[in-house]
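Posting this for the archive.
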Amino acid sequence: MRTAAKEVGGLGVFAVSPAGTRWSFHGGALSQEVDMRTRRASTTGSRVITIVVVVWLLIGLAAAAQRNYFGGSDATCAKVGTTLVTIVAGPLNYIGANPKIDCAAPQPSK
């Protein structure tokens, strides 16, 4: 990461990072200023990722519902695990993924 630093008219030294953050040192205090364009771009990128993840999980939820994983009252380890993995797999369910979980809990000693 490269930063540029220079002194401005005796006011102090400042550095600007490639991410748009400006660090300045005045009178023994270090301060930070963030370029709003960079913050806006970062926020937009975060929104896009959030939307993609939510849509991904909704598609997985639809796949689990179509396979009737929410029906019945027997909530075994295998059924819960299979349902969760199906939801996380999302759109992969529609291109052939059919995740199954097999839980084998240890039996208590006699």
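The helical segments are 36-66, 77-89. The chain is about 40% helix and 20% strand.
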